[in-house]
Design goal:
Length: 391
């Protein structure tokens, strides 16, 4: 039996740069003591007060079908949070609750791209981006950034691809994997290209609470952008609720009304007790969010100290998110070869820059997701290892 090209083509074939990750997982399964600095998951769990709200809701009977667009309470809490943070008037009608940011990324592309349309995204990129675009039948088209620009995209590079025809542009700030926070200048340039080439802008803002330097600007707040921007948000990173699978799309009412039809025919909504817990969590305000972000803020400082007195390993200014992008080109190795050698020699697992496209070759991404002491030890070992190789 033949499977559809849509489904067999999602991954695009070829090596996906995740070999080091799977090797680390195998070593752990075989009982080895590997320090895992690979994926973006907090070392803390969901706060007990949020779990208590989830428990109250489920025991109170909210275990049946919930409203497909999201509960009124959660849609309103998300809208209020967005309006507070960006100043853009936002109501519940601008919000669709989704099972996580990933489902929102899929829905946003489904809403904006026809089959075969070119959909732009920025390299380095979060691993699922090209597959998400292929999954809705569009063609992923990459726009490269450069380590020498600290991975800020250049408007002229986006315009060059947009001028060949494109339906959408997907951006992500604070950025996974680079930790870059897009500057006002970068975002204004991007907004200009979107207006000029009539592009939908899909803005993945799942790391919006993890900003260590500069400020997070949502491009939906820029002039004439609210009616062409779809913002992707999530409780995963801001509230350490990765496993609860709850996120949202914020966009024009008309787009949301169509996306409610998509939700009806795919997910049929998000569990009510999860949504009640999410609304409770958002209503606790920024203190809870700051507490969840605090360990990464602290570890970034630890990393800056460790990396200060040497010049073998370069740190791309980590302005946000839970990752560091380290330039290891002085070792003469690719990111993948370096990550393999660090894993084999010292049992420290990192992600090769090559896992995220071509722009971050010769780099490794370090997730700041183990306790401070192990993190500091692992990073010192990484630097020593790079210095030994560079000799
Ligand atoms: N966007 C980015 C940039 C991410 O790093 C992730 C998760 N690692 C997501 C979206 C999706 O997150 P979730 O589905 O858990 O909300």
């Amino acid at each position: 039996m033949q499977l559809s090209q849509r489904i067999t083509g999602i991954t695009g074939g070829g090596s996906d740069g995740w070999d080091v990750f799977y090797k680390a997982r195998r070593m752990i399964a075989e009982g080895e003591n590997v320090i895992e600095l690979t994926i973006g998951e907090h070392d803390i769990r969901t706060d007990p007060v949020i779990l208590a709200a989830m428990d109250r809701s489920a025991r109170g009977g909210h275990t049946g079908y919930a409203m497909v667009p999201g509960t009124q309470a959660l849609r309103e809490s998300v809208a209020a949070r967005i309006q507070d943070r960006t100043g853009v008037p936002t109501t519940f009608e601008n919000i669709l609750i989704t099972p996580g940011g990933q489902a929102a990324l899929f829905a946003a592309h489904a809403a904006t791209c026809n089959t075969g349309d070119r959909a732009l995204y920025i390299d380095p990129y979060y691993a699922t981006y090209p597959g998400t675009i292929r999954g809705i039948g569009a063609e992923p088209v990459v726009v490269r950034t450069h380590a020498s620009d600290a991975f800020q995209p250049r408007a002229e590079d986006i315009a060059a691809e947009a001028s060949k025809g494109a339906a959408s542009l997907l951006i992500n700030s604070p950025n996974n994997p680079t930790g870059t926070v897009y500057s006002a200048e970068t975002l204004e340039g991007i907004a200009e290209v979107c207006r000029e080439h009539d592009l939908w802008l899909i803005s993945d803002e799942v790391y919006d609470t993890q900003v260590w330097e500069g400020e997070h600007i949502s491009p939906r707040s820029l002039p004439n952008m609210a009616d062409r921007t779809l913002v992707v948000g999530s409780m995963s990173k801001s509230h350490a609720m990765t496993g609860s699978r709850v996120g949202w799309i914020c966009g024009p009412k008309e787009v949301i009304s169509h996306l409610i039809n998509l939700a009806t025919h795919t997910t049929y909504g998000v569990p009510g007790f999860i949504q009640d817990a999410a609304a409770f969590a958002i209503d606790q305000g920024p203190d809870l969010e700051d507490g969840v972000a605090a360990p990464f803020r602290r570890r970034r400082e630890i990393a800056r100290e460790i990396l200060a007195d040497q010049n073998t390993v370069g740190l791309i200014p980590a302005q946000g998110a839970m990752y560091l992008m380290l330039d290891v080109r002085a070792t003469g190795l690719s990111g993948e070869a370096f990550a393999n050698s660090l894993l084999d020699t010292h049992k420290i697992a990192t992600m090769p820059g090559e896992s995220f496209g071509t722009a971050a070759h010769g780099h490794v991404r370090v997730a700041m997701t183990v306790d401070d002491e192990r993190f500091a030890k692992a990073l010192k070992t990484l630097v020593d290892h790079a210095q030994t190789l560079a000799k």
